[in-house]
C-alpha cells in the first residue's frame, strides 16, 4: 500500500492493530459505485458485496454514509443482501442516507427518516425562477425529500452552469435557513444541522469504535474527513482514504491513502480485511 501522508503507514498499522474494534465508513457515489452521467442508474461495484462481507467478518462495523436517500442507495447497492451476509457474521451494516438524517441497519431493516422541512418545499417552488436567473433553466432538479439537488452534468457547459448556479442557490438557501452542499456538478440544498462529520462522530460513539477508516471522493466528504482528523487528535487510530478523482483536490490534501476510484477502493478494502485477519489470527 502506498501512503500519501507523512504518518499514513503508522496510522494504517495502528488501524490494523485495532482491527476488531474498527469502524469502516464509506461514501457511496465515486467510492463504492462508479460515477455515471445519470445518477439514477448508478450501481455498486460488482466486487463490493464480497469485499464488504469479507471485511465485516474482521472488523466491528461497516457503515455507508451518503448524501443520497437511504432507500435509493439500498436499491442501487443491493445493500439489503450485503446486510444479510454481514448479519451472518453477527455484525451490522449501517446505511446513513441524506448525510446522516436517515438511518437503516441490517438488524432493523427499516428506513427511519424525519419529516422534510417546509423550507425545502418553498425552495423547490422557487427553483424554476432561480435556475432561469442563473442562466441554467435546463438544469436537472432532483427532489430527495429532506433535500433538493440541482445537477448541471447534462447541460452543454456543465462547469460554467455550476459556477453560475452556486452563488444564486447559496443565497436562496441562506434566506431559508438551509445548508448548501456543492458536489461534482451538483449543488445540493438541505436542512441544516447534519453532515457526514456529525454522522461519523455519532457512529463512533454508538459502536464504541477503537479506530476509524473513512473512504470518500467528493466535497460532501470533507466534514467526515475533518471529523476523522478530530478523532485522530484525541489519539484514536484513523485512516483517511481518497477515492481519486481528477476533479477534487480538497480531499486529496487530507488523505493518507489515495486509490484509483471504486476499483482501487475494492483493492484497498480487501487488503485491509486480509491484514486485520492475519494480525488477529
Ligand atoms: Mg461520493
Question: How would you describe this protein?
Answer:
The structure is a single chain. This protein has helices at residues 8-17, 48-56, 70-77, 79-88, 118-133, 158-175, 196-206, 222-233, 261-279; strands at 22-26, 61-65, 92-97, 102-105, 140-143, 147-151, 178-182, 186-191, 211-216, 238-243, 257-259. The protein is an alpha/beta fold and 281 residues long. The longest helix has 19 residues, at 261-279. The protein contains 9 helices and 11 strands. Helix 2 runs parallel beside helix 4 (79-88). The protein starts with 7 loop residues before the first helix and ends with a helix. The chain folds into 2 domains: 8-101 and 194-279, Rossmann fold (3-Layer(aba) Sandwich), CATH 3.40.50; 118-191, Alpha-Beta Plaits (2-Layer Sandwich), CATH 3.30.70. A hairpin with a 3-residue loop joins strand 5 and strand 6. The strands form 2 sheets. The chain has a 7-stranded mixed β-sheet, sandwiched between helices. A 4-stranded antiparallel β-sheet has the order 5-6-8-7, with helices on one face. Bound molecules: magnesium ion. The site of magnesium ion has 6 residues, from loops. Removes the phosphate from trehalose 6-phosphate to produce free trehalose. Its EC number is 3.1.3.12. GO terms for molecular function: metal ion binding; trehalose-phosphatase activity. This is Trehalose 6-phosphate phosphatase. Belongs to the trehalose phosphatase family.
Strand residue content: 15-25%
CATH topology grouping of the largest domain? Rossmann fold
Mean of residue pLDDT?
93
Classification by helices and strands:
alpha/beta
Instruction: Please write the CATH class name of the largest domain.
Output: Alpha Beta
Number of separate helices? 9
- Report the major sheet: 7 strands, mixed
Which molecules are bound besides the chains?
magnesium ion
Please identify which CATH superfamily of the largest domain we are dealing with. HAD superfamily/HAD-like
Rg from alpha-carbon coordinates? 19 Å
Amino acid at each position: 500500500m502506498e501512503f500519501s501522508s507523512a504518518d499514513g503507514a503508522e496510522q494504517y498499522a495502528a488501524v490494523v492493530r485495532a482491527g476488531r474494534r474498527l469502524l469502516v465508513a464509506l461514501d457511496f457515489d465515486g467510492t463504492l459505485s462508479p460515477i455515471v452521467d445519470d445518477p439514477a442508474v448508478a450501481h455498486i461495484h460488482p466486487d463490493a458485496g464480497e469485499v464488504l462481507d469479507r471485511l465485516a467478518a474482521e472488523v466491528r462495523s461497516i457503515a455507508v454514509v451518503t448524501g443520497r436517500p437511504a432507500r435509493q442507495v439500498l436499491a442501487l447497492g443491493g445493500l439489503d443482501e450485503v446486510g444479510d451476509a454481514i448479519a451472518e457474521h453477527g455484525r451490522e451494516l449501517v446505511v446513513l442516507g441524506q448525510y446522516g438524517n436517515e438511518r437503516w441497519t441490517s438488524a432493523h431493516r427499516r428506513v427511519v427518516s424525519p419529516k422534510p422541512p417546509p423550507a425545502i418545499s418553498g425552495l423547490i417552488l422557487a427553483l424554476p425562477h432561480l435556475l432561469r436567473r442563473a442562466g441554467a433553466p435546463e438544469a436537472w432538479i432532483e427532489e430527495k425529500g429532506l433535500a433538493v439537488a440541482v445537477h448541471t452534468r447534462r447541460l452543454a457547459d456543465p462547469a460554467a452552469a455550476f459556477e453560475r448556479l452556486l452563488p444564486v442557490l447559496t443565497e436562496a438557501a441562506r434566506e431559508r435557513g438551509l445548508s448548501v452542499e456543492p458536489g461534482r456538478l451538483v449543488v445540493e440544498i438541505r436542512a441544516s444541522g447534519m453532515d457526514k462529520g456529525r454522522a461519523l462522530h455519532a457512529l463512533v460513539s454508538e459502536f464504541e469504535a477503537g479506530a476509524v477508516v473513512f473512504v470518500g471522493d467528493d466535497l460532501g466528504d470533507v466534514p467526515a474527513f475533518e471529523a476523522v482528523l478530530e478523532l485522530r487528535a484525541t489519539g484514536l487510530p484513523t485512516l483517511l482514504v481518497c477515492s481519486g478523482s481528477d476533479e477534487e483536490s480538497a480531499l486529496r490534501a487530507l488523505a493518507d491513502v489515495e486509490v484509483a476510484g471504486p476499483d482501487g477502493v475494492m483493492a484497498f478494502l480487501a487488503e485491509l480485511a486480509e491484514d486485520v485477519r492475519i494480525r488477529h489470527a
